[in-house]
Backbone:
């Protein structure tokens, strides 16, 4: 696959084409110290990623933007369930980091839905897709600071009302260290203490191209730029929209973390808010830096 | 180019009190698959069957045809499957209670 459909910074850290394999994207799991019974429920079942051909019951194989395979995350059919993949690196310097991808999303096809109000355009399955989240995990040498940016696209709420907005988080992801110390245990959303701890990015309303049925996928371009020197977000571009993120507040961890110098992790996830499986697909992912 | 391989943990320390099936998993890129079932706990007198199922779409399932494994005690069990199409899962009738891990190793 060519990198021509990307706009990377001057040094490409990785260019993952999922026709070439899983490329280091693996399931996130909570810390356990060797005892699986110690994993907190919210981070115990974040599902293995899949190499998908985007195959559907009505048309067969859709394929990816390029080639056949994409990276797929799939939730269980349980409201609040989240599927999270992570890729783990370390950094050589601090500065600009740019995450780019071509992605698409779908809710699992349902049968026997009430079509009395169906207009032939807006599909019932669109209301069954919840959240997409892009995030990271950064820790500087010497025990910190540690912080995690997170941007969420909320497609629909638990009642099936379309929200279609970009959000940022206002509380910390619960680390195992926090949980062991008895602090701020999360509920069902790994990014925040409370699933309600999300606020709209200014100007963040952006309908994406769901395209009418549960089995048509349209690939979207996303470019997320952040600055690990200034410790803040910069901007998010999705297709024809670019959001200014420079003033988005970032929660920092008050405690120190050993064993994580220069941590630079990238995470992608999908979260269903209804009892329907939600799927998130990545044709490819490119991360580049200015250092 | 080396062959690709991937191991998915389909169930991780999960507890079941009756029949269950693993989540749909896409395997179209692979030509061989091997399931591992590690039963950590099994209630007294319980019996667990793990048999492979296949699907054209991840929605509708039929038996693959292999017997799979019949489990009556904690331990590690395994069997292989080939020519499975694009989707695999395990159908697991369970009479009792089990705590287990299920791995799917693909190549």
Residues:
């Amino acid at each position: 696959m060519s990198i021509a459909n990307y706009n990377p910074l001057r040094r490409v850290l990785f260019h993952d084409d999922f026709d070439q394999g899983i490329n280091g994207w693996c399931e996130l799991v909570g810390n356990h110290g060797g005892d699986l019974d110690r994993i907190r429920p919210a981070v115990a079942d974040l599902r293995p990623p899949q190499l998908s051909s985007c195959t559907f019951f009505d048309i067969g194989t859709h394929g990816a933007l390029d080639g056949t395979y994409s990276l797929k995350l799939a939730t269980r059919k349980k409201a609040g369930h989240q599927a999270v993949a992570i890729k783990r690196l370390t950094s050589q310097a601090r500065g600009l980091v740019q995450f780019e991808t071509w992605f698409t999303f779908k809710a699992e096809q349902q049968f026997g839905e009430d079509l009395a109000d169906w207009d032939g355009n807006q599909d019932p399955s669109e209301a069954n897709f919840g959240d997409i989240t892009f995030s990271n995990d950064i820790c500087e040498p010497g025990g910190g600071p540690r912080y995690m940016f997170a941007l969420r696209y909320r497609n629909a709420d638990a009642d099936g009302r379309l929200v279609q907005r970009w959000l940022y988080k206002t509380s910390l992801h619960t680390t195992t260290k926090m949980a062991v110390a008895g602090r701020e245990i999360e509920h069902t959303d790994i990014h925040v203490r409370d699933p309600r701890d999300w606020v709209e990015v200014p100007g963040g309303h952006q309908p994406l191209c769901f395209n009418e049925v549960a089995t048509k996928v349209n690939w979207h371009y996303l470019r997320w730029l952040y600055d690990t020197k200034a410790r803040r977000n910069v901007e998010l571009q999705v297709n024809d929209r670019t959001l200014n993120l420079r003033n988005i507040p970032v929660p920092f961890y008050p405690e120190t973390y050993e064993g994580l110098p220069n941590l630079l992790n990238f995470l992608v996830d999908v979260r269903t808010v209804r009892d329907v499986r939600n799927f998130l697909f990545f044709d490819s992912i490119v991360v580049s830096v200015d250092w | 180019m080396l062959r690709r391989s991937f191991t998915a943990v389909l169930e991780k320390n999960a507890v079941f009190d009756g029949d269950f099936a693993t989540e749909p998993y896409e395997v179209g890129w692979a030509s061989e698959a091997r399931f591992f079932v590690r039963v950590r706990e099994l209630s007294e007198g319980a019996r667990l069957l793990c048999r492979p199922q296949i699907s054209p779409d991840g929605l509708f399932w039929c038996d693959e045809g292999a017997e799979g494994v019949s489990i009556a005690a904690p331990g590690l069990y395994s069997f292989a499957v080939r020519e499975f199409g694009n989707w695999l899962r395990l159908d697991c009738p369970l009479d009792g209670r089990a705590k287990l891990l299920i791995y799917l190793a693909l190549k």
About this structure: The domain at 11-289 of chain A is CATH 2.60.120.260 (Jelly Rolls). The interface with chain B takes residues 21-22, 27, 29, 36-37, 39, 44-45, 47-48, 50-53, 55-57, 61, 68-69, 72, 74, 76, 108-109 of chain A (CB under 8 Å).
